[in-house]
Prior knowledge:
The structure holds 2 protein chains of 2 kinds. Chain A has 9 helices and 10 strands. By secondary structure, chain A is α/β, with parallel strands linked by helices. In chain A, a hairpin with a 2-residue loop joins β1 (about 5-15) and β2. Residues about 250-255 of chain A have low confidence and may be disordered. Chain B contains 14 helices and no strands. The radius of gyration of chain B is 27 Å and the shape is extended. The chains are: A alpha/beta, B mainly alpha. The interface between A and B is medium-sized, with 32 and 22 residues. Chain B: One of its GO terms (cellular component) is plasma membrane. Chain B: It is a multi-pass membrane protein. Chain B: Belongs to the binding-protein-dependent transport system permease family. Chain B: This is Phosphonate ABC transporter permease phne.
Amino acid sequence: MSAIRVENLTKRFGETVALDDVSFEIEAGEFTVVLGISGSGKSTLLRCVNGLTAPTSGRVVVDGDPVTSHRDDVAMVFQQHNILDGTSAYSNALSGALGRTNFLRSLLRFNDREDKLQALEALDMVGLLDEASQRAGRMSGGQQQRVGIARALVQNPQILLADEPVASLDPGSSQTVMRYLRGAAEERGLTAMISLHQVNLARQFGERFIGLADGRVVFDGYREDLTFDVIDDLYGGIDMEGFLSGNETDATVVQ
Amino acid sequence: MSTQLSLEQRLEEIRLTRRVRWILYGFLSLCFISAFYGSLLLIQFSVVDLYNQLPVFAERITNYTPNWMFILERNLPRESVITLAVGFAGTVIGLPLALLLGVLGSSRVTPFPLNFLFRGVMGVFRAIPSLVWFLMFIPLAGLSAVTATIAVVVSTIGNLGRLFTDELEEVEEGQIEAMKTTGASKGQTVVFGMISQVKTSFIAWTLYIFEVNVRTAVTLGLLGGSGIGEIIQVQQGLRAYGNMMAGIVVVLFLILAVEIISQRFRSYLRDDEETSGLVALLVGLPQRMVESALK
């Protein structure tokens, strides 16, 4: 049985069609990268898988159950990190356990010892164990995103979603964050769906690729199928050779 | 040639709008001046009368020299501590209720028409001044510090709750969504996703309301709510103006002390020097005082 099955998913925001009859299946344990330009429907797709956005028609089936609201075995890493700035990295990681902690205990920070250890373990996994007691708001963008990953891991998810997790990071931090995402997914055997618009990172880390354009699936395949032509189709007329070789001859602006 | 013409036209347009604006300003100034003049007539304000009264005022003001002995005779520091206690207890009792109503009043927590129920309650608490609340609660607890505290509690709920609600309207959606995706319950989402974003400003507003409440407690004392305010009121009634002035000086010190401490805390929160910690702040105090004295 597939881990994620998307069936004829359509989402409209007023007149705008964000997703147009999208269908695909993702097997358990696959590391999938969703590609496409801004506005192609990547975020909406991930949000539908997570139940943060309700589809106009069609449905998403996760682990045999149709998605109706957010579930704690689906974790999400956000583009804007969305970590709690005012608290420590450790508290942030621990907030991943909220779904299995009752209200009063979470309010008084009486978490299970196991959950506390797990929070530290997750921080260790993203290389932030020494920074555990640092205030999250004071960390660098890359570190904040790794805290976000740690929080997602503490959720003990089956599925890990990441919505452009590196869009606001510099190239070095982007690589680090992607490496930790890939590493965590492999170590825990998670099914992962990551949306990206950096083609080079996608090729470096992706296993399977789903390409979206104007809310439709225009590509679905594995690494060997992802040719320059496909990328050119997806991103519409970027000079791939010039882009990859860093050749600046065509870089002059023509009005 | 055509550009010349359009420049002329544009200049004419600008002059016209300027002229209209000047006429508007003139009209507004006229309204303002006549409103001010009307107010002065209504309150029968007369500089001449005040001037004529000046010698009498100068003669009487000598009676207003503070009678310093009274401070110890009547143990005014103890009375001001009672006033402080009214403000403090009122803030502490009002805080959880303000938090509850303030959070429920936010449209981010309670859906639109319902949240106005809670906002309405806070609005009523706020609309009636604490002096009037005091008068209303006299049948419950008499002319006492208890009644003053109840009045402070009610106004704390109204004012602090409203500040909390406003603060919550500004929180970012991202962290709320992030908490939802962890499978957090509604209550957990509110506490961790929303309140954690505004934690420091909540504390800062509470300290500010505490300052206001101590001032209110002084005023309620004038009505019979005990504490330093009542002393001032009684001495004024006895025409013992020296004693009254001694009480006012003590009030001045009380209010100043409360504000300095509260503002110190709030600036500490603003800088969010979490690393230096409160202990370091207290330990460092003598050193900083010496440093500033030597400057």
